[in-house]
TrEMBL record, chains A, B:
<dbReference type="GO" id="GO:0000976">
    <property type="term" value="F:transcription cis-regulatory region binding"/>
</dbReference>
<protein>
    <submittedName>
        <fullName>LacI family DNA-binding transcriptional regulator</fullName>
    </submittedName>
</protein>
<keyword id="KW-0238">DNA-binding</keyword>
<keyword id="KW-0804">Transcription</keyword>
<dbReference type="InterPro" id="IPR001761">
    <property type="entry name" value="Peripla_BP/Lac1_sug-bd_dom"/>
</dbReference>
<keyword id="KW-0805">Transcription regulation</keyword>
<dbReference type="InterPro" id="IPR000843">
    <property type="entry name" value="HTH_LacI"/>
</dbReference>
<dbReference type="GO" id="GO:0003700">
    <property type="term" value="F:DNA-binding transcription factor activity"/>
</dbReference>
<dbReference type="InterPro" id="IPR028082">
    <property type="entry name" value="Peripla_BP_I"/>
</dbReference>
<dbReference type="Pfam" id="PF00532">
    <property type="entry name" value="Peripla_BP_1"/>
</dbReference>
<feature type="domain" description="HTH lacI-type">
    <location>
        <begin position="5"/>
        <end position="59"/>
    </location>
</feature>
<dbReference type="Pfam" id="PF00356">
    <property type="entry name" value="LacI"/>
</dbReference>
<dbReference type="InterPro" id="IPR010982">
    <property type="entry name" value="Lambda_DNA-bd_dom_sf"/>
</dbReference>
Amino acid sequence: MSKKTTIYDIAAKLNITAATVSRALNGNSKISESTRKLVNETAKEMNYEQNKLALALKSGKSFNIGVIVPRIDSNFFASVIRGIEEELHPHGYHVIICQTHDQDTVEIENINSLLNAQVDGILMSISNSKLETDEHFQKLLKKGVPLIFFDRRKEISGVSSVTIDDFKGAYTATQHLIDQGCKRIAHLSNNREIQIFKNRYLGYKQAIIDNGLEFDEAIVIETMSKVLEGRKTTKQLLAMEKPPDAIFSSSDFTALGAIEEIKAHGLKIPEDISVVGFSNEPFTRFMELSITSVDQSPIEMGRITAQVFLEEAKNSKKIKSEKQVILSPELIIRDSSLKSTIVSEK
Amino acid sequence: MSKKTTIYDIAAKLNITAATVSRALNGNSKISESTRKLVNETAKEMNYEQNKLALALKSGKSFNIGVIVPRIDSNFFASVIRGIEEELHPHGYHVIICQTHDQDTVEIENINSLLNAQVDGILMSISNSKLETDEHFQKLLKKGVPLIFFDRRKEISGVSSVTIDDFKGAYTATQHLIDQGCKRIAHLSNNREIQIFKNRYLGYKQAIIDNGLEFDEAIVIETMSKVLEGRKTTKQLLAMEKPPDAIFSSSDFTALGAIEEIKAHGLKIPEDISVVGFSNEPFTRFMELSITSVDQSPIEMGRITAQVFLEEAKNSKKIKSEKQVILSPELIIRDSSLKSTIVSEK
């Protein structure tokens, strides 16, 4: 790599002090017009560009925004990012993205990398970890770098968030399964220290109770949002003495795994077992057997997250404001759970 | 936002010069051990962290690597990035990602953003634009920031690349359609100023010619890699006096659009029209009618791209080396083109 030009190189070339170079580049009025011109021309000749960064450091603005997501190969997160970009781009901001792969160590590294990259703010969906400490988030707050959570959030004072009403989404999905005649509905849950998964669990549970069905903790299984994990967990459920007649999954990926496993057992969907996922990933629509899922309007979520950031960035005062935006989810009913005709035939 | 602590703040607090603070933080031997200790402790107390960046500027290393892709919501690009991360992480590098949405202006902005973020290198797949200028790439080279292309490359002296043998992938796909009895094979192409699309076109053309079929430029249509574009283009093809009996698409997304459009016309796949895509996106496997496609081993592509970067980063000398790695593609035959039984019945 060739060495970068510094203000010292320019100073040496012009036989003036580095301080003069710095002042000239920053447009300090103590510097004569002729010197300023000479310094600027020399800087250009020598391919000097650090001053942009130096200015950014000074003004506290790089116009780069960091976005951290568990994974980019999920349509949900990719769409949120798209919404963020669409909203921020007209304001001159650029989005740089990191993924955590749901590992807390990587999440911490990502935050440090983005801080080193001088981002003006971090918009993130936290990783699925059981990390107790908030230290890495507190570090951001201490440095005055705006932090905004979307979808997966942690309750941290001073941090705004944009989420959907996961309780309602799960309640509606479970109610739909009950309306279809299902009586023993299993739940593929996820790490419930993350609020979205906790709320999906609570919404599911409440719908079961409100409809006078038996709530059985044995058919609530915590798993990871992966196809293979969905298969494994469903295998467990099918091996039970009283297997479920429906599965409500907190993730489309585990729902897909559940469907693969149910088919492998020669059972029919939705007749023998109905399946509902969460997130409305595009594959739920393309599948041979399309999957019922809960839509989270991700592009809107991204846009609103960006708007919350823009507001906070404007408030450069010492005012600490915290905003919680909660969007309403929508159940998209498809083949994997729609057996109304069968029910009405009974 | 709270103001960042600078070396001037530390200097003021300790009543020493900023230069001394800077030297102490950088471990200059002219500074006494006691001063160094005092400065470091004060810097820590005052939450000073700029020195990390300053050191990064000095050493030319931030351990951040920028990856630029046209879109993150493509399994192909997400998998390449995964391969890059897996390979670079053990070396202490962090990956930050930008997407261009195939817009050249955004591509240029992304490069500038990543330069401002002080990345140690940029690994990228260029956007689908007809931009004539190489200026933004030359800027990187001039600054000595390693640039490596993967998949979508441009021929630029001094820039290494990792691609697959697109000619071979397209040739094999077209030969397969011919073997299935197809005689009038259309090609959904893309911007052929991008080498991968040019090579896919050339491979397709060569297979047509080698098999003694008529090559008809009228059924080669340039389109964008989007489902809707695939539908539109296929509509055009189906309206022709002599419509094709097969479509070889340079993208799985346009292939998906083609399938939707063919179905909407009440035609059968593969009996009436066979379809082959390119990239082996996961949805090609999940579809009701699974799609034949060309696999590009993206994780391996990412890993090798990262390895090429690591080699170049080691060569901090003035040696300019250029490496071109070409991986071999594999045709995955599925429902959308497999009609062997029908052919043999004839």
